[in-house]
Design a protein that fits this description.
This protein has one domain (2-83, 90-167). The protein has helices spanning 2-23, 25-53, 58-80, 82-109, 117-136, 138-175. By secondary structure, the protein is an all-alpha fold.
């Protein structure tokens, strides 16, 4: 009964989180990036404490203390302004998508692209356009990704629920 109960609980949790992602993608994205800020602060504080507790010359620890302070400051900054992290992470992602599309296109111009040159051309152009759209509208991109994650979590939740609700039947059939 433990596996059955765990699968049902996991299914419900995945469903609830997935629904949250779909219901409030902007808020969910900001919360995720705020959690990243908390992780930075905690990592910096833990590192700072371990450095200060370690034996040895304080002079040799200054660089590590400064690094810890920078990590803590970044964490606080992300907590105060999660939009900054959303914007810049998607700007980097947009450039990566554009570069990928451009590389595919350049490969096509050099005679690459295999049998499906037309498909390579279409995919290259779509990647470049999507990359530009991500650069122009990073928050829309973040919400779209959050929505896709929400849908995936709901699917995983439903699968877990179905598995949890039918596991007894499956185990009984295996034992027979």
């Amino acid at each position: 009964m433990g596996i059955k109960r765990n699968k049902i609980i996991m299914g419900i949790m995945f469903l609830l989180v997935g629904i949250l992602f779909l219901a409030a993608p902007s808020t969910t994205t900001k919360v995720i990036y705020s959690v990243i800020g908390v992780v930075f602060v905690l990592a910096g504080v833990i590192r700072l404490i371990s450095i200060l507790r370690a034996k040895g010359d304080m002079k040799g620890k200054i660089f590590q203390i400064v690094l810890s302070a920078i990590v803590i400051a970044l964490g606080v900054f992300f907590l105060i302004n999660p939009e900054f992290l959303v914007t810049y992470s998607y700007i980097v992602f947009g450039f990566v998508v554009i570069l990928n599309g451009a590389a595919n296109f350049l490969n096509l111009l050099r005679g690459g692209g295999g049998k499906s040159k037309f498909l390579t051309l279409i995919v290259s152009l779509v990647l470049i356009i999507v990359g530009v759209l991500i650069l122009v509208h990073p928050f829309v991109a973040a919400e779209m990704v959050t929505t896709l994650i929400g849908v995936a979590l709901i699917i995983v939740g439903v699968i877990n629920l179905i598995y949890g609700l039918t596991i007894k039947d499956t185990i009984s059939k295996v034992e027979e």
